Each structure stands twice: as C-alpha cells, then as structure tokens.
Amino acid sequence: MSMAVVVFENVQYKRNFNTRKSSAKAETSPSRGFNDPGAMSSGPLYLGFDLSTQQLKGSYVPVYAVAITSKLAVACEARVEFDVDCPKYGVEKGVHVSGEKREVYAPVAMWLEALDLILERLRENGLQFGNVKGVSGAGQQHGSVYWSQEAENRLGTLDPSKTLREQLVPDAFSHPWSPNWQDASTQGECDRFDECLGGEEELAKITGSKAHHRFTGPQILRFREKHPEVYKSTSRISLVSSFLASVFLGSIAPIDISDVCGMNLWDIEGGHWNEPLLALVAGREGIGDLRRKLGDVRKDGESAMGSISTWFVSRYSFPGDCQIAPFTGDNPSTILSLPLRPLDAIISLGTSTTFLISTPKYIPHSSYHFFNHPTTPGLHMFMLCYKNGGLARERVRDSINKSLNIKEEGSWDEFDRAVRSSLYLGMRRSSDPIHLGLYFPLPEIVPNVRPGTWRFYYNPSTGSLNEVKESSGYWQIPRDDARIIVESQLLSLRLRSQNLVHAPNPDLPPQPRRIYLVGGGSLNLTIASLVGDVLGGVEGVYRLDVGGNACALGAAYRAAWSRERTTGERFEEFIGTRWQEREAVEKIGDGYNTSTFGEYGNVLKGFEEMERKVLEIDDTTSIID
Ligand SMILES: Nc1ncnc2c1ncn2[C@@H]1O[C@H](COP(=O)(O)OP(=O)(O)O)[C@@H](O)[C@H]1O
Ligand SMILES: O=C(CO)[C@@H](O)[C@H](O)COP(=O)(O)O
C-alpha cells in the first residue's frame, strides 16, 4: 500500500515525489506556510482527485470562510501508484502495450480499485469526510470508458458494504479497457478525420486541433469498427474525467466543456458537436445513437452537477449535501491550480510534457491545441503536448546510470551532473559543434514521427546539419544526451509557442512573463535552470509547492469555488483573493537571461530544419539506444 500524506505546519520542507517505493503508513511531515492543525477537523474541506497515467492522487483543501483572509492551502494528500499498488493488473507505468499496432490501454477495474484504495488511505489519515463540502477531479485526457446498459442502475444502487470495484466490475462496462492517450494505432482514422472537413487546418479551426492519434473521436471510430458488437451494446461513452465524476455522482456525468475539446468532435466556436464528424464516427449506427452515447456536454463550468452518491455517504460519512463540481482533463485542471495571468505559462513535467497558457485569443493551428477554458467563458487554453517527456528523460537517466554502474534505482544525480558537465547545446569549448537531438522512445505527437533517437551537429553560420551516428569525443553517448534531451525538448516548446507570447515590455523579446513548473520533473532544479535559459520568463521560473499534484489541487480549488463563490465571482477572482503566493509557489530559477536567450534563439531555425529532416528520413536507420 502506498501513501504519502503531508500535514502542513509552519516549517519549510521538501516533499520527495521521486521515489517509486510505497510507504505503508500515513506519514506526517512539516511543510511551508500553513499553520492550523484544527482546520482538518473543523473547517469545510474540498476534495480534488487526479486520475493520471501512472497514479491516482487526491488532495483536500480547507477553506475557513468566505472572508478575504481565508486560505486555500493543501492540508494533506494521498496517492495510489498503479504499478506498485495494483500489481495484479500487470501494468507498466500505468498501462498495457500490445499488438502489432502497439495499442496502449488501461484496465478500468484498476482505476476503481485505486479509488477504493485512496478513500481508505484518506480515512486512515484522519480525513473528516463529514467536513467535505465539495468534490471535483481531473483525469488524463482523451481516454474513453465504455459503459454497459446496466451502468446507470449499478451506479445508482451501490451497496455500502461492498467496494466500488466489486460492484461495478464487470457488469457496468461493455469493455474492460480504456484506450490511453499514448496510443498511436489510429493513423488511418486520423486521415479520415482530417479529410472529413477538408484538411488538418480546417479540422483545427473547428475543433481546436488537427486529428491526433489519441483524440477520442478517432479512438471511438477505431473502437466501433474493431468491436462492432461491443459498440452496439455500449450505453454511454465517458472520458476519464467524466467516468470518475460518474462514480462520485452515482449516475453517468456529462462531459465537461473543456475536456470535450480533446475529442476532435466539438465545434469550439459554435459550441456544439460537429455533425459531419459525428457522422464519420457513428457510421451505420447513426448520429442519434452516437449523440445518446456521448450525452450532453456541460457548458456550465461553475455550478455543481449534483450531490454525492449515497454510497459515499453511507460508507465514508460524506455529508449528504456534499456537492460534485464538474470534473475536467488533467491539463485544464492544472491551469486552475493558480491565478494564471495572460503571458504566464505552465509547463507540466509529468509522464507527458505539456505547455499551457490561458488566453483570450483563439488562434487554432494544426501544430498545437486549443481548448475551452474549464471555468471561464471567453478564455481558452493553449496547449502543446509531447508524449516523450518524463519517460524519455528517464531512459537517458537509466542509460547514464547503467554506464556508470549506479545501483540506486531512479537516481537523477548523474543525469544532473551530466547536464552540468557541458556548456549550452553540448559544447565544452566554444569551437565545439552545436548538438541537437530528438529522443522519442514512443511515437511522438509533436512532430508526428515514429519512435527513434536522432542526433545532429548544427552550424548556424552555414545552416548545415550532420547526423551523428556514434559516440565520439564531441558527443559522448549517453552522457551528453542528458543536456541535449532537455534543451531540445525546451527548444521545441519555444519554437511552437513563440507566436502566442509577446514582449512583456518594449525592451525585451517576446517571452512568457512567469513560467510555473508542475509535475514530477519540477523537482529537478537543473532542469528548471535550463527552462529559464531556453524559454526566458522575465519574472523567473517558479515551482508550485504542490508540484507533483497541481491538477488535483486545481480540482480542489474548483470544488471550493463552485460552492463558495459569491454571485458572479469568477474563478480567477476567487482564487486570486485567497491565494497566498509566498506559500503556494517557490522561485527556483531566474528565468530570462539576455545572452542564453539569444544563443538559443539562434538555433531555432536549425531545430526546425532538423525536425523536417527527421520526418524526411523517417525510414532510414536511426540510433535507438
Ligand atoms: N527529480 C526528478 N528529476 C526529473 N524528473 C523527475 C524527478 N522526479 C520525478 N520525475 C519525473 O516525473 C514523472 C512523473 O510525474 P507525475 O507528474 O507524477 O506523473 P503523471 O504524469 O502520472 O501525473 C516521472 O515519470 C519522472 O520522469
Ligand atoms: O494527452 C495528453 C494531453 O493532450 C496528456 O497530457 C494526458 O492528459 C496525460 O497526462 P499525464 O498523465 O502525463 O499527466
């Protein structure tokens, strides 16, 4: 059993999310900036969940009152790690991978077991369920869950003496698996999506994104054609976020207005399903049938969807009027974890790497994503998402550790040392060649390319790019890969976000104002310093103090806002007035540095050219280490 619970007191601390080991007992440890031990037993609490790729996390936020001085501070967290805590499902990093097409999927039963487990862990830790006034949650995006005809009945009549998994598996589902966002088996379906509206730019204009393997529309199309009978017998299709919400509500929850944009089916500006795309997915079963399966989309991101299911009331003593606020995707929920201003950016260094900006602009393009903002009409979320984020960096880390015979599993020390051992872009002397690379152990989204590792030397004065095929004095594989993977991942973010940011003042080049890091990788200060060097950030690079848990925190904030807001009070206002910056974020990097920002700017063209070359030479040999 794994549990990491932190009760806040008024002492500095650093939590370590870096361990993959489980600790059997609830641990309490001192933390920063929160000093009211009574709050857990007396004040109203808001619970936020995150059902992400590798784990299920929960955190709860005490809100003392509606007064200005009220604090929204994390009091506790619990987590379940699928690989460690749910071993019987045999998943690796939370998923199964199989078949010729490398399908990636997760067992729905495992998620229910994890939910049973996390509730027990919250109880063991002394959570006063009776004080929980609201619940919200976040889910990994794009995954779909297929409910049976029995589902509504099962959800509504759960017996409190039995677990969720015992009662819902298998009868509530028509299919035991949820296709995962890392799945890349739908190229054919994506081509049909792009064609359906006349090309990828047209599709991006309407739905916020061109067709992507992981997006739910292409995934459902593949599902219907591969499992026609199962599709027919499916009563409803949920996203991971609305699946989790359904369990709390005790009936199937609507899809949320932001998460729906990860399906390639929703007309963002029109505010409705796109009929030709629905027709493509529905086939002979018909649009009406698909509409019923998908249900209504909830446009109201503020008010609660209903009260908590009686199963939670009877089994855990939640109050009967505990409200279930809308649930959303993990990325939209992450932008709710702080009062984000225009020009502020969040980089989530989780299993995936994502780059998020909240913006009033809607400038769709095939190379990135736009979503509706989860709480605030008129705002949008700009997103870049890379499949090869944390896991690709881990692979380089493991090769370095192996080459040095390091026994300590998962240690980042040598990786960090390797990053610091060369100058920018792998140079040790200014006469050395500039190193650039693409490290994709999984098929990548940005750009859409097969798995492989490609290394190049780049000369900005001649524009020449020469592929590096083996280790040499200039490029020591795997050691030099540590710096190059991080720099190259960041250059890709800079290249693609440069038109979305503007100059914070007339004397500076366009760049984000602040960069907030969240997710597991935000614990790494070496990475944080490169973030500032490559991407800038005129006010610096910050880490959310709950860096590993930002989307669960965003969900808890949303639950609090949904219940406590005054009439017309926007989410940003509600959080902004209660948010204690000094307690919530920590400055971990200086951000913008004139000289490095300029140096990295000079290689953007080469980086773009390298990607073009890799797409061109896609079928030639690449070095896979
Ligand atoms: N000290 C560290 N340095 C770099 N990366 C780290 C560090 N600690 C954790 N990570 C990365 O964080 C990832 C998990 O991030 P997390 O946000 O918890 O995952 P999820 O995507 O499941 O929400 C791991 O895959 C690992 O690569
Ligand atoms: O596919 C995307 C976003 O489009 C991913 O960001 C998923 O939402 C999974 O997130 P993590 O589990 O890595 O946090």
TrEMBL record:
Keyword Acetylation: no
Native source species: Glutinoglossum americanum
GO molecular function: ATP binding; D-xylulokinase activity
Source species, domain of life: Eukaryota
GO biological process annotation, one example: xylulose metabolic process
EC number, as in UniProt: 2.7.1.17
Carbohydrate kinase FGGY N-terminal domain segment(s): 181-281
Ranges where the Carbohydrate kinase FGGY C-terminal domain occurs: 346-562
Task of the protein: Highly specific D-xylulose kinase which participates in the catabolism of xylose. Xylose is a major component of hemicelluloses such as xylan. Most fungi utilize D-xylose via three enzymatic reactions, xylose reductase (XR), xylitol dehydrogenase (XDH), and xylulokinase, to form xylulose 5-phosphate, which enters pentose phosphate pathway.
InterPro entries: ATPase_NBD (IPR043129), D-XK_euk (IPR042024), FGGY_C (IPR018485), FGGY_N (IPR018484)
Catalysed transformations (reactions): D-xylulose + ATP = D-xylulose 5-phosphate + ADP + H(+)
Protein family according to the UniProt entry: Belongs to the FGGY kinase family.
Keyword terms of this UniProt record: ATP-binding, Carbohydrate metabolism, Kinase, Nucleotide-binding, Transferase, Xylose metabolism
Protein's UniProt name: Xylulose kinase
Gene Ontology CC: one annotated term: cytosol
